[in-house]
Amino acid sequence: MYIPAGRNSITIAGIGNPTFDTCLTRGKGIYLNENQHISFEDVTGSCFGDVAKCNLGITFVLNLKLRNQTSKCYVFSNGGEEATNYGYAMWFENNKLYVRISTKRLEWMTYTSAVKMEELIQIEMSWSRQKGIQLRINKETKAASNQCISRPAASYTVNKDFVVGGSSKGDNGCLMILEYFTVVYAFRDIVNGTGILPDLGTHCDRNTTEEVQCQAAVQMTSTDIAFVSTFGIASALFACIIILFIFIG
Is the pLDDT of residue 206 over 60? Predict the structure, then answer.
């Protein structure tokens, strides 16, 4: 099933036609079984599909209901789970929700067990080079880490597809009902207009180009931060922020 979605389009791929659930707060949500997933196809021209282009970070927000899971399953991915790729990945395993973001040089990961099955929840994952990774459930921070690890030297590539309801290969998807999926090209502090006040610490000890960019970002003045924040909010339906509502009603 092909659905136009502004500048990008999505395809609901897999076995069988998509169905919709009517029990969610906004009206209807799309039901994804283990054999169906949403494909955004190639979005590597933007921060959405290529983390290397996320100069201000990125934030994902999802309203969904996870059904009872008996094995590892993926909420979304564009290759962050693969040893040869870099990107984003969120998955559920052993009653914990994990998130991982990797670049060609570094990797961040955290997890939480504060996820209830069979209930509508809001999941927010936000990341920036300065702040690290943060995971919020129903608007409460449940896990956060600014600790990154260095990846072995290799030729990592970005995956061409962004998948919701599956791994980057479109398999091992979570059984879930998805109400909406939002992507913001900024860390949540920028979106909230509070500015970024990072403490890099010494956890990234290699003086890579990526870490130099982190340090340069820290040197922004309060005026610079306010301007960036205003720009991010003012551009809500244009270049900085993509909002995709996947609900019917």
Answer: no
